Amino acid sequence: MARHKYACALRWSDMDAFGHVNNVVFLRYLEEARVDLMWRLAAEAEGDAFSGGSVVARHEIDYRKPLVHRHEPVLVETWVTKIGAASLTLSYEVKDEETVYVRASTVVVPYDLDAGRPRRLTPVEERFLTAYLEEAPAKGRRKRDDEPEEAVAA
Q: Which CATH superfamily is domain 4-130 in?
């Protein structure tokens, strides 16, 4: 299936005292990619998909390599790894051609803003999400055997 690809510009303010992208900023990068997928692309493809709102129920993030400031954007790939009746799980890789900086996942719950409570996915939303459905990466498995893990976020 397809992965959504989002080119995310690095801002000078994204850097921390150690000279790399701060751990919290990566959540913003994921948010930008998620919003682009679920609001812009879904609206273009399916009209009213996700127009009622959604909330984040959970984030899980693995920091694999430090990302330092540069003028070229970083790529955020997003895909769907689970579609439930009233939630979905997105997986991400923040990367460039050679390096995966972050692997992450987010559980998103469709939300009825007027009623102030979670709601079920609509058939239109399920159809849209299915186009991006792919297996989640195995926990603890590295993309390349020669790619060491290291602590990178402060």
A: Hotdog Thioesterase (3.10.129.10)
